[in-house]
Queue: 4 jobs
Job 1
Amino acid sequence: MALKHLKQFEDINDCLVMAKKGDAEAQCYLGSAYDFRRQQVSQDYKAAMKWYTLSAEQGYALAQYALGSLYENGQGASQDYKTAIKWYTLAAEQLDSSAQYALGVMYANGKGTSQDYKTAIKWYTLAAEQGNAGAQYALGVMYADGLGVAQNYQESLKFFTLSAEQGNAEAQYNLAVMYGKGEGVPKDSSMAKIYMSIAAASGLKNAIDFEKKMTPSQLKEAQNLAREWVRTHK
């Protein structure tokens, strides 16, 4: 979990002073310092939870999302999916895309709530519209498998592409498969090779294993195609 758009403090001591005075941004940053070892602060999930809570209770969306993540993962407190959903929802309603995506995951997997694909689709869509790559990938999966929506390979391809263009290796791999099979798009072995090579370069095991089955000439061709595609799509 990373906290995007979090205000940065150059001096952790100044941050502490402001946090103690009730500044929600400083409290959230201090929580993140304990969470992610910022500025040589030792990791301490209980301290992170303390400061995130103070910030979240003031309605600060980033802290609400971070607090939800701690409860989901049982860091600083016992794992509590229902409380995680509570905080994710508060942040998601403030249009925090990371919280919207996290909430979608909770509903899709039935964590802290009944499994509800339609509600998962709702939150994934809101996050995807803000450019959240994880949510775009998740929507691609939902449309490919017909979960909460009618199966639609063209929509799946669209969302996998959006996610892949942001560097999501799993989306890149799935695009390779879809182009190879002609799902939602005319069959195109060149595009399949391109996305498989890009996914492998991103470190995805499935793609790396697939490339190992190629002959040296096939691998060279795929990598050359991928390099040229990346060069022309920068």
Job 2
Amino acid sequence: MNCCRGRMFSNCWNGFARCSRRWWGRWFRNSIGRPAAAGAAESPEGRDFGPDLPLILEALGEHAGRTKNAALLTECARKALSRTITGQYKKADGKLYAITIDPTLEHPLLSCVQQGPEAITLAIPPEAASQINQAAAQCWKSAMDKGLDEVVLLCDARIRPGMMNLIGRSLQRLPVVAYDEVSAGTQVEPVETVSLAEAASVLSQNGEMVTV
């Protein structure tokens, strides 16, 4: 009887994995992965993420009882996939090369986080959004000038979704990774730092805000 149930579960799981692989592949590519380069040899579904499905489902099952917020659940799934995320961006020398955010900017950004039912965003003045975008772009350019064409923007998990939305429109190929999405034992090599002069004052200005 137990053997029969085991085979039934195995068949159901395999069928689920086959049917959902395309959907999970798109989800992973949109929320975790980096867009493929134009003309790159890649199937429409991208990489086969079947092996990661148990980790994703376990993370969702563990946290779904506490929240139905899709954005929060996505971040929980990302944390569970820290080894996959780290492996995706780690260089051959075993190091993860990262653009970091100056604490004088990162800490004030935490107070700008807004959590909605479907998204986690940052509410900041338009000028601040523009300056942060420009600073991140300059850091990325400086990293590439050093021959580091594969770097990540590393930040606090609470602002990761907002930072991804903020820079995603102009810096589509710069991944945004949270500290706790880096697997244990990985050597992180900071290469540039995003900063904003008088960040606390700029971010606390009253008036029009943009949500990113």
Job 3
Amino acid sequence: MTYAGFWPRFAAFLLDFLVMAPIFILVSWGQAHFRLFHVYYFLPGTLFGFWYGVYLVRRFGGTPGKRLMKLRIVKVGGESVAYREALLRYLPEWIIGVGVSLAGVIAVLSLTDDQYFAARTFVERSQVIDKAMPSWNGPVTIALNVWVWGEFLVMLTNKKRRAIHDFIAGTVVIKDAQRIPSYPWTCFVCGNNNAPSDRSSCAVCRFPAAASRAEIEAAKLAGVSASRPYVPSDHAQ
């Protein structure tokens, strides 16, 4: 497998931001016209987040940004992710996001229309809402910043460019050119020539179909076979 580097993943992040720009514009418009928009949007926003961050990852192997960059999220052994992995990847972000959203809901509920609409600009309105936030919003905001910067830091300090959520879910991001063939394939390690197209690894020696030449040679040298099946390393740095 050819692992996706930092910059392709960062570009995918920016593309996802652009894809969701209409949602951000809608939220900004709603907050400017309705004091309780935070309340109205809480459930739809949560459901949209699960659809975008869990369903699309399970169904297509990544968010629109990653797919546009020809990147795919797979398990560390090369297999396609299931809902378990997709959910585990998204769960920390969702927990922190819910905390931030709930703080906003509590803030607007504590304000009157006169207080809310006295602010004429986006910046002024943000300041009014910020002052009405519950005291625990501070730690939640700190947690959000630590999470975001921690993701980038961890990604930069391991060879597979796995972020924290990748380690939590047991996933890795690879270049899509190295994906599993869509037809019966021959295992380059043990020679099994009847591997079905719906398997992501050889049924005999368990070697992944999505593998680089170096990984194939290393597996041959290690003596991978039916009696000594391939075991992926989750601890490579």
Job 4
Amino acid sequence: MPITPIGMYKFENVIPGDYVLEIRRQGFITRWAEVTINTDGMTLKHRELIAGDINEDFVIDMSDISNVNSKYATYPEALYDPKYDVNGDGNVDNEDIQIIKGNFNAYIGTYEDTMNWADSY
């Protein structure tokens, strides 16, 4: 589904009912939300994702820092991989490490309003 740079999206031809929406982005802790779609559509309040879950295991820990360190100082011209570029600035550097440190020990339960669907993976 196309998503705009500011996170807007549109579902089309969805049958009204109750659904679980997965909100996911590479390098961030995934979250889920229960939503009800009716004939008027659906409104979902703003939800942010927590950056730094490089290995996508639903927790930000030393393994994520280690993964970024393994690609540290790589740039698009070299062995750059956007998966390790947490802030998306085109460099794997200390700024990425600092974001992970700032979110260190965050996990799926950090989202107060999320459903814990991680066990289904």
